[in-house]
Structures are given as structure tokens and as C-alpha cells.
Design brief:
CATH topology: Cytochrome Bc1 Complex, Chain D, domain 2
CATH superfamily: Cytochrome c-like domain
CATH class: Mainly Alpha
CATH architecture: Orthogonal Bundle
Strand content: under 5%
Number of domains: 1
Number of strands: 2
Number of helices: 7
Shape: globular
Strand order of the largest sheet: 1-2
Radius of gyration: 18 Å
Order of helices and strands: HHHEEHHHH
Bound molecules: heme C
Largest sheet: 2 strands, antiparallel
Length: 144
């Protein structure tokens, strides 16, 4: 009986960790679904022209976002995101999550400039969506 209890305990611990790891690393399939929230303004088009997501043109192409310096795709960015890139902002998971949750607040904090502005008017409400979208974007980019 004791052994059985112990096994049940072990299983619950390992399964619990599995779930935590999952939520931290994100789920690619869920990210693809949540990308619908970005698609009206963003495409994902690879360097050799393959359209992974054919979306709107209001925002920059998000292909290869991981490791990319902010504000450096071929797109007419606002000043603040370009300045942040010049100051060293590179898109990694943490920066990405903070940015998509509130682009303007992120740039204000990053540049320590209250007058910083973002051309991205959208705010993603759920951090879990941001984590999954990041996993989805990274799964297609060159820097996995
Ligand atoms: C209403 C249109 C719109 C929506 C919806 C939108 N964005 Fe954006 N996004 C923009 C614009 C415009 C910019 C350029 C910002 C600037 O120049 O200040 C941008 C910039 C970005 C950047 C910076 C890219 C770079 O090249 O430095 C990332 C990352 C990003 N968006 C991710 C997302 C994600 C993820 C979603 C969905 C959750 C999303 N956006 C939804 C319009 C949008």
C-alpha cells in the first residue's frame, strides 16, 4: 500500500513538472491559433519568400523575430522602436512577452522616456498566449 502511494506521489510530481515545463516553453499549435490575433497586421514570410502566415501589412514581418534587433525589418517603424534597437534591444522571449502585453509601456520603460511611442496599438491580454505565440514564431524561424 505504501509503495502504491509513493508511486502515485511520484507520478503526480513528474506530471506536474511536465505541465509547468509545457506552460513555460509554450505550445506551438496553440500559438498558431492565437496568432490569429496578430494576423490582421503581421505576416510570417521566410527570407526565401515562403508565406507561413499571409497577414496584413500594417506591421512588420515577424519571420526570424528571435535574435533580431528591434525595428530592423524592411518596414517603416516609429522612432522609439528603432531607437530601442540602436540602444541594443534584441527580441528574445522575455522582451517579446513584455512588448506584446503593452508596446508603449514597454518602450517607455526601455528608453526611460515618457514620450516614447509605439505604432502597435494592440495589447495582448494573456501572457500564456504570448508564450505560445513565441513558441510558434520560433518554430518557424532560423533561430530555433
Ligand atoms: C493593429 C495592428 C497590430 C496588431 C493586431 C499586432 N501588431 Fe505587432 N506591430 C504592429 C505595428 C504597427 C508594429 C510596428 C511598431 C512601431 O513601429 O512602433 C508592430 C511591431 C511588432 C513587433 C516588433 C517587430 C520588430 O521588427 O521589431 C513585434 C514583436 C510584434 N509587433 C508582435 C505582435 C504580436 C505577437 C501580435 C499578436 C499578439 C501583434 N504584434 C499584433 C501592429 C500590430
Amino acid at each position: 500500500m505504501k509503495a502504491l502511494l509513493f508511486i502515485t506521489f511520484l507520478m503526480s510530481v513528474t506530471m506536474g513538472q511536465g505541465c509547468v515545463a509545457e506552460s513555460l516553453s509554450g505550445n506551438v499549435a496553440d500559438g498558431k491559433k492565437s496568432f490569429k490575433k496578430c494576423k490582421s497586421c503581421h505576416s510570417i514570410i521566410s527570407d526565401d519568400g515562403v508565406a507561413i502566415e499571409k497577414g496584413g501589412k500594417a506591421g512588420p514581418n515577424l519571420w526570424g523575430i528571435r535574435g533580431r534587433v528591434s525595428g530592423t525589418s524592411s518596414y517603416r517603424y516609429g522612432n522609439s522602436i528603432v531607437t530601442a534597437g540602436e540602444a541594443g534591444l534584441v527580441w528574445e522571449k522575455k522582451e517579446f512577452i513584455e512588448y506584446v502585453s503593452n508596446p508603449k509601456a514597454f518602450l517607455v520603460a526601455k528608453l526611460k522616456d515618457k514620450s516614447a511611442r509605439s505604432k502597435m496599438s494592440y495589447k495582448l491580454k494573456k501572457v500564456s498566449d504570448a508564450i505560445n505565440i513565441w513558441a510558434y514564431l520560433v518554430s518557424h524561424g532560423p533561430n530555433k
